[in-house]
């Protein structure tokens, strides 16, 4: 098994300041290990602290309790080197063209001008935006703008890529295709991918392992291994095992989602065990 | 050029042509106003002779100085207030009512304090413009998407890099709106106070020519002010349009 790249131990996040009901226990306690090079997805009911979990790993917000390590070093309230993030909101820079947007990711790099240009070109090719290098974000569709942000993250060659519902604003077909591209990029870059999503099929189709979060305060209450081959694509949704994965995810999540809309059902939410058929 | 732009030119051109006809036929007598073509001729002669150069330089110099001060102080204050919420909430109502205050009323007081040099005029122009810059800076900073600032942190940009490469361009169009207002206010402040009392400048010369029935000086100077402010505003608007079009906002 690959070594752990990210290790969360007993991590909790409580928001003290802000609007009532403060203090708000957003997430935790969470124990989680993400392995080097794997594709890890997190699903959970809305408002369960998924994005908080991502911001904790990204070093954008410090944990109230517990420790987070990235490659063996603790993350203390500052984004560590080697982590890239693609947010749900459009983070393309409207005043720069696609080339400028992607090159922006190399602002702090020591590479020569030629090396930077080449890296930008290569990444644009990888995300399929070579023909739009001189276009401005306003001229692109939402899916293309999100690809610009992915390219800007990839150009930094991060060893861990965090994605916060990056396709949330896109339509279903575009999401499936973007998922394929994401899988292809994951294979070509050898980076670890940590994906947050509310779409069960997206998680089931893309990830090696899927963590299921409880209602707030979000904890990881189940972890599902999909055992897909590394060279999979969106056609995996036809696989017989795919239904079993989404079914197991939904069975766990249904209870939790009920809680968030205030209609808790009887029974233990954590006791879920659906055997997975071999793939 | 669009059809609407041609119509606009036609309206202005028509008004000038009408004025020309009214002056030439004597409907407007010579003591009241010169014919437009004569104003243009007189302006050319005046600029060629160089007798107004000192006045023009004084006015443009003071306007530029007031503008730079209003922008620097306004943007810095805006950025500071954006940081400190409580301070901003305290001052916001004052900004909202600021333009109800006739700033020119303070002019005599400034002359008493600073003497009849350039200072009182610059101060009036600065005071007129600075709050527009502050308000628009705050507005611009409010609209910088949070996701861009998170991106800057993920990229580990320094605070200065974040301010210059993220915040400033993201808030750019709003800052430009403030700058446009500040240009107009700087002109109004300087020339207006020169009218009231000063020792030179375009406003002073217009007022002086007016008192002496010197139409051959007064009207060309008015035309000069018109041309200068229209030109500067036109250039800024063009720049603004380019920025906005690139962002798909117009």
Describe the structure.
The complex is a heterodimer of chains A (279) and B (250). By secondary structure, chain A is of the alpha/beta class. Helix content of chain A is 32%, strand content 22%. In chain A, strands 6-7-8-3-9-10 form a six-stranded mixed β-sheet, with helices on both faces. At the A-B interface, strand 6 of A face helix 7 and helix 8 of B.
In short:
The complex is a heterodimer of chains A (279) and B (250). Chain A has helices spanning 50-58, 98-104, 113-126, 142-154, 172-189, 200-206, 240-260; strands at 4-15, 24-35, 39-43, 65-70, 73-74, 83-86, 160-164, 192-196, 209-213, 220-225.
Q: What gyration radius of chain B follows from the Cα positions, in whole Å?
A: 22 Å
Largest interface, with counts of residues having CB < 8 Å to the other chain, equals: A-B, 24 and 22 residues
Percent range for β-strand residues of chain B: under 5%
Number of helices of chain B: 10
User: Quick check: average pLDDT of chain B?
Assistant: 91
Look at the helices and sheets of chain B and give the structural class. Answer: mainly alpha
The separation of the N and C termini of chain B measures 16 Å
Round the Cα radius of gyration of chain A to an integer and report it.
19 Å
Task: Give the percentage of residues in beta strands of chain A.
Answer: 15-25%
Say how many strands of chain A there are: 10
In round numbers, the mean pLDDT of chain A is 83
Task: Looking at this protein, list some descriptive labels.
heterodimer; A: 279 residues; alpha/beta; six-stranded mixed sheet; globular; B: 250 residues; mainly alpha; 10 helices; 81% helix
């Amino acid at each position: 098994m690959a070594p752990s790249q990210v290790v969360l131990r007993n991590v909790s996040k409580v928001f003290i300041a802000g609007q009532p009901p403060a203090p708000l226990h957003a997430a935790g306690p969470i124990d989680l290990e993400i392995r080097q090079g794997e594709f890890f997805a997190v699903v959970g009911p809305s408002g369960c602290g998924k994005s908080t979990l991502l911001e904790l790993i990204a070093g954008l917000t410090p944990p109230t309790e517990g420790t987070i390590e990235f490659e063996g070093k603790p993350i203390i309230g500052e984004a560590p080197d080697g982590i890239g993030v693609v947010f749900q909101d459009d983070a393309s820079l409207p005043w720069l063209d696609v080339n400028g947007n992607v090159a922006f990711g190399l602002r702090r790099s020591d590479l020569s001008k030629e090396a930077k240009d080449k890296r930008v070109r290569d990444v644009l090719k990888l995300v399929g935006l070579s023909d739009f290098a001189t276009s401005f974000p306003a001229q692109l569709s939402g899916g293309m703008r999100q690809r610009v942000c992915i390219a800007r993250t990839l150009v930094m060659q991060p060893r861990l890529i965090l994605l916060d519902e990056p396709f949330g604003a896109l339509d279903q077909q575009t999401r499936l295709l973007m998922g394929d591209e994401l899988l292809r990029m994951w294979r070509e870059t050898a980076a670890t991918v940590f994906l947050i999503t509310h779409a069960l099929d997206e998680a089931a189709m893309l990830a090696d392992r899927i963590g299921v979060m409880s209602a707030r305060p979000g904890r990881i209450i189940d972890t599902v291994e999909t055992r897909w081959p590394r060279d999979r694509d969106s056609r995996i949704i036809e696989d017989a095992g795919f239904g079993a994965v989404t079914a197991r995810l939904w069975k766990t999540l249904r209870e939790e989602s009920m809680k968030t809309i205030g209609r808790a059902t009887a029974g233990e939410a954590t006791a879920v065990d659906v055997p997975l058929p071999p793939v | 050029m669009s059809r609407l732009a041609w119509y606009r030119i036609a309206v202005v051109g028509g008004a000038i042509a009408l004025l020309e006809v009214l002056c030439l036929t004597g409907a407007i007598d010579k003591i009241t106003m010169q014919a437009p073509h004569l104003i243009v001729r007189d302006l050319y002669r005046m600029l060629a002779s160089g007798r107004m150069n000192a006045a023009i330089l004084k006015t443009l110099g003071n306007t530029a100085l007031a503008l730079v001060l209003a922008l620097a102080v306004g943007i810095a204050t805006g950025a500071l207030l954006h940081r400190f919420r409580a301070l901003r909430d305290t001052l916001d109502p004052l900004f909202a009512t600021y333009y109800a205050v006739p700033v020119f009323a303070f002019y005599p007081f400034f002359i008493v304090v600073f003497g009849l040099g350039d200072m009182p005029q610059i101060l009036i122009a600065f005071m007129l413009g600075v709050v527009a810059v502050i308000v628009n800076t705050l507005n611009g900073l409010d609209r910088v998407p949070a996701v861009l600032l998170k991106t800057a942190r993920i990229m580990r940009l320094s605070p200065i890099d974040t301010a210059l490469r993220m915040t400033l361009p993201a808030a750019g169009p709003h800052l430009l709106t403030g700058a446009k207002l500040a240009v107009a206010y700087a002109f109004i402040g300087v020339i207006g106070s020169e009218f009231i009392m000063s020792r030179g400048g375009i406003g002073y010369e217009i007022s002086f020519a007016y008192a002496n029935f010197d139409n051959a000086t007064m009207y060309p100077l008015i035309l000069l002010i018109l041309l200068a402010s229209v030109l500067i505003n036109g250039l800024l608007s063009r720049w603004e349009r380019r920025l906005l079009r690139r962002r798909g906002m117009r």
